[in-house]
Input
Amino acid sequence: MELVMPRKPRIPVTIVTGLLGAGKTTLVNRIVTAHPGQRIAVIESERGERAVDHALVVRVDEELFELSRGCACCTVRGDLIRVLGDLTRRRDRFDRIIIETTGLADPGPVVQTLFVDDELQDAFRLDGVVTLIDAQHASRQLASHPEVRDQVAFADVLVINKLDLVDADLADPLERRLREINAIARVLRGRHGDVALAEVLEIAGFDLGRALAAQPSSFDPDRAIAAPPHDDVVTTIGLELAQPFDEARVIAWLRRLLQHRGHDILRMRGILALAGSARRLVVHGVHALLDTRLDTAWGDQPLRSQVVFIGTQLDREGLRAGLASCLA
Amino acid sequence: VTAPRDRADLDRVQRVTIPAYPTALAWSPTGALLAVAGDHGAVELIDATTGTIARRIPAHAGPIQAMAWHPRQPSLITAGQDGAARLWESPFDAPIELLGPGPRWADHACWSVTGERAAVTVGGRAHVFSRASRIAITPPAATALTGAAFTPDGAGLGVAGYGGVRVFDATTGRITRTLAWNGSLLSIAFAPNGRAVAGGCLDHSVHCWRLPSGSEAHLGGYPAKPRRVAFSHDSRWLATAGDTAISVWPFDKQGPSGRRPVQLEGHQAIVTELVYAPGLELLLSGDRDGTVALWAPPKRTTPVARMRLAGKVTQVAWGGSGAGLRWAAADEHGVVLLGPARVV
Output
């Protein structure tokens, strides 16, 4: 009989992205200041103004590596593999890691790093990607910087910041524009990063269903997804299926999908009902990488699978048909 | 030194607990002192005879990343997350500052075989010292260095990182050899005869080059990162971690390509640490679950001796030589086992 070692709880990692001037450092400092009793490590790529002395601040140069593992190729952050690895080699455990990227960084490699490295996967879990948007410059930046679009697409939380500097009626159209790219992120509005921290942290377990329900438009099958005017328009597609899946088939299908379409699919998240299992299967994809784990039981709630894809050139009906072929 | 038979033994085991996570382990040249560096920024010097902590050297602000004894003298180099590198000479009261604190971590430290030179890496650069003077600094690599080792003749310094191995002239810092590979190396080890260099890779493989030809061999199939690799004293074998079985690859004239390694079976968990004893076909290894094992490869593929620690083995080390041969192993809770090794 195998002796199962009790696993230490994994350390949550929050990734904070946004262009220079969007307010990343202010938000990170707020998180650290608001948790004086916690051991927090901040990994930063740009020198930030740190008014906090109880956090460990590690400065890194973002090192992008191509890594091939099995049949999936991906780009990872070599500096994070090293530094996060070293942070596990100490007795004082961290309660949280915050990774602040450079302004123009693609969050993809950061997330992929947490997915692909087995040592890091044992020790850390992605809590969420928080993207700060400078309300003053967002419209222009979205047009001029493809990196901003990717940062929005990858976000679990979008903070529209510096709203005190713009006309009040600009906020709604900006939020609508962001929602077109990423329909499932939680959107918060702030002035100096003064958003409720409870909305920014511990979001890994947040309810995908609720996020989708709050955005009925992304779910309306009748809503024609206009053929994207350009190939690189990022959209969200949400699918819901009532019957349970065959576990092996759906995992194999998702894996194949991400391997073939990993370039177009930035992120994929889903909560799936499985035939013969009382527990939810949580799936999480980043480009070509897939992470799956069994989560809590459905209990009294109706079994209802939901999958969301964020990416370019997504074919709703094709994805639905593919998923439907994996039903038990 | 006689070649070990099957009856080598880990004798008279002593147990010491240090108040830290052990990040580096190194024996003094005579095997009289075991230095244990930790995440508390200090070096604990353990008296091998009494098995007690004889001395604590407060060495760095923040965790120590690397530590290395001079091969012949009682002096020690430490490198830390504070970015500093320090040379400590007996009686270890005040250090000679090789590199002052800085924003980047000082990650690796090593001596040449004779102890004439030492090297410390910080980020993408390696600094070479002759006693307290810096004599060379390598041009920066685009990414941080993951290992450094002098060539066995001491004339060159090899560094590992993303993109392969580069060898520099140890006195000028000029590049003398580029061994390119499209991947990320995690470590570097030269064969003692200087005819090969190898490193574990991020993508669960080991990459090696024969020297001076530069012909390559890529060894795959590891379920985890084989960070530690070690050549036997006669340069005929390469032992690699990264699996529950230790693979010992033949490194004779034919090389390892297309051949099967000798598999050492006895660990239940992934082996993370391993090192060959100086001048002997004796291998010490440690795994993620706390098992420490002694091996006599390639002849014997089952452990000669085994010992248990409570947590993940963070370091293993050999020290001394001949009748004074000693071993040590440390786990994540700060428990250190040490003792003489009896080779019958």
Notes: Confidence is low (pLDDT under 50) at residues 216-229 of chain A. The longest strand of chain A covers residues 124-134. The interface with chain B takes residues 5, 58-59, 61, 63, 65-69, 78-79, 81-83, 86, 89-92, 118-119 of chain A (CB under 8 Å).
